[in-house]
Specification:
By secondary structure, the chain is an alpha+beta fold. The protein has two domains: 5-245, no CATH class; 254-376, CBS-domain. The protein contains eleven helices and 13 strands. The strands form three sheets. The chain has a five-stranded mixed sheet with strand order 1-2-3-4-13, with helices on one face. Strands 5-12-11-10 form a four-stranded mixed sheet. Strand 6, helix 8 and strand 7 form a beta-alpha-beta unit. Helix 1 (21-40) packs across helix 2 and helix 2 runs parallel beside helix 4 (138-158). It is globular, with a radius of gyration of 25 Å.
């Protein structure tokens, strides 16, 4: 889902919206102002209903962002980078650089979104009760109460076992853990998702034809169509039911994912020289810094360089843009990838140095982890380590969406 307008960053994650959101935003605001709020709190002026409707709709989409942040922050714990969160016509989408590295990670990442929605619902219900006890405006109480109810509904609806909704991903995680076969679990969850999608389409069509809830009926049809198409795509990507056992990060080692032979830079090199001689020609994002005896003294990243004022680049040694050796995460090529992936989150640069007999042999990034797991889970693919470069972009990704039921 493409971003049309950027809204800024939260916890370093870019937030944006797609133009398709706008018609639904105003349709929801109109529904609140014309029907829901007047029914719950009669006797107010029309402009008051519209003001609260617009604010309530904005708060609702903010809760969608919170839902997606739950997924995104859980993904970060397992070394999966988050490109952005985008709001669109059917809700919110967290765009991740790669898929879950393990069944446990999949379960926690999937459950995090509904957990946030239920927490918001509980907080909203408590706030609505308190406001009512304090004698606050009935319109305010109705607004907060509606937000509590819609977040509860959002959490419940996304727990339906309709892959790729959160409930479907939880189902895949459970099957993945049980069978230790990612492809088989994905194929099964996708079948259930397709069935659930067709069921939603049928229920929506019946509701629309019955005339009792035309808007809800259309919405269910759209969601059912989205779930069906997305489930079919996931089934194709899984390579079918898969008879062979698929590898996961629990089976892989660091050697399967690391970027070997990183380019090192001397400690006395200036930031400007590193950018001109190493960054621009290679487009790498991290460079080990070594002293005159080739001993590792730090790790310089493009992000750290960019944080320095440009006018001092020519006179500043690269060590000023490097994490010192004491802060670096070290591992060996034989370490379990899933263990090191979790350790990456304790590093400010989210990178690990791979050593063998005190010699630097590679760098591991969250993108490397995601790419290795994606390759291992795809039948017939070769080991992902060959030909990788430090700081390279991932070739595979996934999206985690929250779908509202209006």
């Amino acid at each position: 889902m493409n971003e049309s307008v950027g809204l800024g960053r939260i916890a370093g994650i870019r937030i944006g919206l797609n133009w398709s959101l706008l018609p639904i935003f105003f349709l929801l605001a109109w529904s609140l102002a014309a029907n829901l709020l007047p029914s719950a709190a009669p006797g107010f002026a029309g402009w008051g209903y519209w003001l609260f409707a617009l604010l309530t709709t904005a708060a609702f989409y903010a809760s969608l962002v919170a839902h997606e942040l739950g997924h995104a922050l859980a993904a970060r714990r397992y070394g999966v980078n988050v490109r952005r969160i985008v709001l669109w016509v059917l809700g919110g989408v967290a765009q991740l650089e790669g898929d879950s590295p393990s069944a446990r990670a999949e379960l926690e990442m999937a459950a995090a979104g509904p957990a946030v929605s239920f927490a918001l619902a509980a907080a909203g219900a408590g706030a609505a009760w308190l406001l009512g006890q304090l004698g606050v405006s009935a319109l305010m109480v109705a607004t907060v109460g509606w937000l509590a109810g819609i977040n509860a509904l959002l959490g419940v609806f996304n727990l339906l076992p309709a892959f790729p909704l959160d409930g479907g991903r939880i189902l895949r995680a459970v099957l993945w853990r049980r069978w230790r076969d990612r492809a088989r679990a994905t194929a099964t969850a996708a079948k259930v998702g397709r069935f659930a999608g067709f069921a939603l389409i049928a229920v929506g069509a019946i509701e629309f034809l019955a005339g009792g809830g035309a808007l809800n009926g259309i919405w269910l049809v759209l969601i059912g169509w989205f779930v069906t198409v997305a489930a079919q795509q996931q089934a194709r990507l899984s390579g079918g039911t898969g008879g062979a056992v698929s590898l996961t990060a629990e089976d892989l080692t660091v050697a399967d994912a690391m970027s070997p032979g990183p380019i090192v830079v001397p400690v006395n090199t200036t930031v400007a020289d590193v950018i001109e001689r190493y960054v621009r020609p290679t487009r790498f994002s991290a460079f080990p810094v070594v002293d005159a005896d080739s001993r590792l003294v730090g790790l310089a990243t493009v992000q750290r360089m960019a944080e320095l004022p440009r006018d001092i680049w020519a006179t500043t040694p690269i060590s000023a843009a490097a994490a010192p050796g004491s802060e670096l995460i070290e591992c060996t090529a034989q370490d379990r990838l899933s263990d090191v992936a979790v350790r990456l989150n304790t590093s400010s640069d989210r990178r690990a140095i791979v050593v063998a007999e005190a010699q630097l042999v590679g760098i591991l990034t969250p993108s490397d982890v995601a790419r290795a797991v994606s390759h291992a889970a795809s039948p017939g693919r070769a080991s992902p380590a060959a030909g990788q470069v430090a700081g390279g972009e991932p070739r595979a990704g996934s999206t985690w969406g929250s779908v509202p039921q209006l």
